[in-house]
Amino acid sequence: MTKRKIFLLSLISVLAVTYIFQLVFASRAKISEISFKGELTKIEITAADTKNTLSKQEESFFINDNLPAKTELSQSLFTTLQSIKVIDSVNKKPSQSDFEKYGLASGMTVEGFSAENKKLIKLTIGKTSTTGNQTYIQLNDSKEVLLVSQDLNQIFSTSEKELLDMTLYSINENDIYKIAVTYSPSGSFTAEKAGEMADFKWNITGADNNVDLTKFNSDKFKNWISTITELSASKWLNNFNVADTELDESHYYSMTIFAAEKEIKIDLYQMKADLGSEKLCICSENEYLCEITADDVSRIVTELKNFLD
After folding, report:
1. Is the CB of residue 44 less than 8 Å from the CB of residue 56?
2. Considering the chain, what is the average pLDDT of its residues?
3. What's the gap between Cα 290 and its chain centre?
């Protein structure tokens, strides 16, 4: 190969690399982030005939105003809405046929509000691009069609069921040091840990029923403790209208768990004659009325005689 050919090939390589860098930096220069003034505290997602409202109060999230929402998933939606990146302006004056083309004629809308209910941002979300990781949108009241990063359809299509946090409590077994139970058919008792952590025993420190406490089996009690470290609702009852007096009359079981710096109270209400049926439940961790399954009822409801030899 001659020196001339080597020189030309080298020059072509340099120009090719330069062109690639120009393309990269040119594309980067187009990218901008949508910004708005004010603190985002509420998101309303409207699609077809469904509407979900996700609100933030301090570090907690709520779906449709009054039910607990999953923290990590909710925070992800808030973060996404606050960091929309515009890649390109696709069409500044779209026609009706363009709206159809980009899926914006009947697209999902996502609106963000401040604590004072001031609208901070509105997105009309259209189709996802052919790459699968970009979305066509309209911003606020503008007709301009923008191409933004991420598949916003997939992100904001999260259903109420997916957002709901059904957890009542979840604790580490080793953190539990005391438990108090009141069961209306059989009385109340309190148990506490005693001894060194590596070789502790459970002892009954209080009971209002006449039993022989020398027959108490610490290992049986410890095994039961290992089964009650978590509890979830099977259904939230946000439209339950039973009067407080009716709930009071049906209250038959309470359990208070003392764990580390927490004090968790579970109250169960007997609304059906069948003792093995689902029960109404209120947990002090969130204080929302809910149902728990019959299996969970069987797991957490106990009496002192179950731990005697």
Report:
1. no
2. 86
3. 17
